[in-house]
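Contributing new records

If you add data, match the layout below exactly. Sequence lines come first and carry their own label; structure lines follow with theirs. Keep one chain per record. Anything else will be rejected by the validation script.
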Amino acid sequence: GYFAQHQVDELNEDGTAYSHMAELMPDAKEAAIRARLGPIGFEGDKALTRVSALSGGEKARLTLALIAATDPAVLVLDEPTNHLDIDSREALIQALNAYDGAVIVISHDRHFLEATVDRLWLVADGTVTPFDGDLEDYEKLVLAESRNGNAKVKKGPSRTHADDRRRAADVRARLAPLKQEAEAAERLVVELERERARITKALSSPLLYENTDDAKRKLAALTEMEGRLAQRVEDAEAEWLAAQERYDAALAESGASA
């Protein structure tokens, strides 16, 4: 799968996130399509918003999701963060760290690179070779080359930085499932609370308390739904807390930072 910023402009401006994903999943049910869109911020009515009304970051997220939906073994990303806002960039970082396939990234975004890649390659003099340093080493190399004119580019000197970066990437990969579990539990709590608020608002309608059989039936049904949701919220919050504790414990054991 290949992603470049120009692909964002190829989205159908009159289409929606849902319609784009549905084209790639012609035999899928609505729930399966929405399951692909929800984790990238296209939940509920947002999935039905016209592309022309989306921000640049939202369009980029949608484009990446459409590429990932084809389950490619390798993703090639050409400056993927150019039009992403901070939240979208962090979401992309999390998605790439959880991705099972290989990812090749071309980017000038130092934060993005430090948070995702575990190996650097140097493109120079018509060749591509492994670079044994980290981004700091590369910056020093470029500055040295600038000072020394057109001296031939050599591999970075520091294997220690490269090893540290690979170890950090391994830790992120091990923690990714626990982090995703905690985030999914949190999203469920938010969704249930939103539904509970909708029912609570409905229960405030004076029409429900009229002395009619229809009003009594509706009131009883909504009251029962509110009770069930209250229990689901309680259970979901407990699972969220447990998932977060598992992630925090693993994070502390690894010695990494969130």
